[in-house]
Design a protein that fits this description.
Helices cover 25% and strands 28% of the residues. It is an alpha+beta fold and 352 residues long. The protein has a single domain, classed as Endonuclease/exonuclease/phosphatase (Deoxyribonuclease I, Chain A, 4-Layer Sandwich). Strands 3-4-2-1-17-14 form a 6-stranded mixed sheet, with helices on one face. The protein has a 5-stranded mixed sheet with strand order 5-6-7-8-13, covered by helices on one side. Helix 2 crosses helix 3. The chain is globular and about 55 Å long.
Amino acid sequence: MMKKIHFFIPLAFLLIFSVSLDLHAQKKKKNNVISIGFYNLENLFDTINDVGLENSEEFTPIGTNKWTSERYLEKLKNMAYAISQIAVDETPDGVALLGLSEMENRGVLEDLIKQKTIGDRNYQIVHFESSDARGIDVALIYQPKYFKVTESKVYPLRMAEDTSWRTRDQLVVSGLLDGEKMNVIVNHWPSRSGGATESEPKRIAAGDLCRHIVDSLLHMDKNAKILVLGDLNDNPDNPSIVEHLRAKGDRSRLEEGDLFNPMYDMYKTGIGSLEYKKIWDLFDQIVISQGLLGKGKSNYKFDKAYVFNKEFLKQKEGDYEGYPFRTFAGRNYMNGYSDHFPVYVNLVKEVK
């Protein structure tokens, strides 16, 4: 009898251990992850001069940037590779939706999504031409496998005291993300050109406009799921974001209608998406509505935010080692990626 007992106890233990591993594997498979991101492409221009646009002439073969077809194709290849790598550690298809800024027109986006490294994702484009003086726009690309567009429109930003001033529109795209209603607002707020303080009223106006869009969506559905993506040209603790957009970093203290900014704590710990004069800023942000918060995950909820700052996107040497490896440093062609790191968030849903 003792021999039989000694024979069966290890076997039972192995069976229990095997079942435990199997249950653990099944539990891990119960989460669907969808990634949504934003990337400032740093002047993705074609080589054709659009007369009247500030930057267009610079990005021609005879312009100051000597923007040849070879350089344009290198830029497309680099940007597509960077996009292909975002969030693949969490989901093999990478970003399902990606807000973009600093592209010249729809044509460069069509060239971008055809690149070999992302061509099989079948990205589709939502884009409107803006009246921005630099000739750059915002856009959204998305994988139809995950997202179906139901409506899209743009909101222009104007300043009453300067009617001739033009900047990027704010793009609103609504649709179904894996069957759930989702709203995305893509932004590229006015720059700090001329000084952060002097230009701040323009970013405050951008925050007010974005807040107006958010309020309109929440008026139709108080639990609306909204993601505000963009290069906001302000940090998470600046008034344009905290006071005017009403995006807060402490989710436990949100009031009705407030947005949650998961980038706030990241910024406070020194994480950035770009540098200026060797100081990190976190201008690239993803802000979410309270409809994407909560403990229950029977539908998609916010899980975590990231700055995608992999080593291949960083300068390898010199005074700016570790900072974004950009296309140009001044007038010097670097053949890099962008002067901004991409950012993204994961949304998670439990599968029954």
